[in-house]
């Protein structure tokens, strides 16, 4: 019994270390955002500011049109979320329940695309978008970020945790493909769609390279690009940079807190069945 409690204590101690390592950078970011400039690099290091300077937020947010940047990021990330979930779920259903020539090869190509760095295809993608006349437009910003092969994999693996008889029984009962998808499959894969949506939203929200290449109009820039421009300005104030970083992190934290149960459920179920 003592040995069991000892192992439990060790496990909780290790988990506590991971929690501290994870939480401390967030704490430091918030703390620095409320410090005076002379406290940021003061020695000895101060974990908490003497006075909470909330004006750092208002000063930083008015230095550039960050609210416009935030709306642009929200729009791009939300559209990417819904499109990637919709087409990703359709593709996953096709790969799971349908048989067609070249199915395995096509799925292998989808999986292979996960290991291709974005930097490799950035130039061809830029040339293609430029030829289509979509540079410096919302369409040119969003369309390349909607392709999310990881979503297909997650949903497909989640569907494999359910017996194939669910789909076959619906076919025998005379249901068509759209009815099966909307009435049977879609309600079952809500946790997986939540995970895919969160991943897609976060990746689009944090994307820096593609907005940098495709957008030159300041009013169409995303928050990540605006934060970089603010950081590279002539006068660097690290407390204000941290204030903008906190501001940009809030939507992601809210998104995860709202959907965390479905997210954890999907991750725990994905991959339980091989094949």
From TrEMBL:
This is Binding-protein-dependent transport systems inner membrane component. InterPro entries: MetI-like, MetI-like_sf. It comes from the Bacteria. Keywords: Cell membrane, Membrane, Transmembrane, Transmembrane helix, Transport. It is found in: Cell membrane. The lineage of its organism: Bacteria, Pseudomonadati, Spirochaetota, Spirochaetia, Spirochaetales. GO terms for cellular component: plasma membrane. Residues 70-259 form the ABC transmembrane type-1 domain. SUPFAM superfamilies: MetI-like. The chain crosses the membrane at residues 9-30, 74-98, 105-129, 141-159, 180-203, 241-259. GO terms for biological process: transmembrane transport. It comes from Sediminispirochaeta smaragdinae (strain DSM 11293 / JCM 15392 / SEBR 4228) (Spirochaeta smaragdinae). Belongs to the binding-protein-dependent transport system permease family. It is a multi-pass membrane protein.
């Amino acid at each position: 019994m003592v040995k069991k409690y000892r192992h439990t204590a060790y496990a909780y101690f290790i988990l506590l270390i991971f929690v501290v390592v994870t939480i401390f950078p967030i704490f430091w970011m918030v703390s620095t955002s409320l410090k005076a400039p002379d406290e940021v690099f003061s020695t000895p290091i101060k974990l908490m500011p003497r006075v909470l300077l909330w004006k750092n937020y208002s000063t930083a947010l008015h230095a550039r049109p960050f609210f416009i940047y935030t709306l642009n990021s929200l729009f791009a990330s939300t559209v990417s979320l819904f499109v990637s979930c919709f087409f990703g779920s359709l593709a996953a259903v096709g790969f799971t329940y349908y048989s067609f020539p070249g199915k395995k090869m096509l799925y292998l190509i989808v999986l292979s695309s996960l290991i291709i760095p974005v930097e490799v295809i950035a130039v061809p993608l830029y040339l293609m978008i430029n030829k289509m006349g979509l540079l410096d437009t919302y369409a040119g910003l969003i369309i390349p970020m909607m392709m999310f092969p990881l979503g297909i994999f997650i949903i497909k693996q989640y569907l494999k945790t359910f017996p194939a008889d669910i789909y076959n029984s619906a076919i025998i009962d005379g249901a068509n493909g759209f009815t099966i998808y909307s009435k049977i499959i879609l309600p079952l894969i809500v946790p997986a769609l939540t995970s895919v949506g969160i991943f897609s939203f976060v990746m689009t929200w944090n994307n820096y390279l593609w907005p940098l290449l495709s957008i030159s109009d300041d009013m169409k820039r995303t928050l990540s690009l605006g934060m970089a421009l603010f950081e590279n300005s002539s006068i660097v104030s690290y407390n204000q940079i941290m204030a903008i970083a906190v501001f940009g992190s809030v939507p992601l934290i809210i998104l995860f807190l709202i959907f965390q149960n479905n997210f954890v459920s999907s991750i725990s179920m994905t991959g339980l069945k091989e094949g």
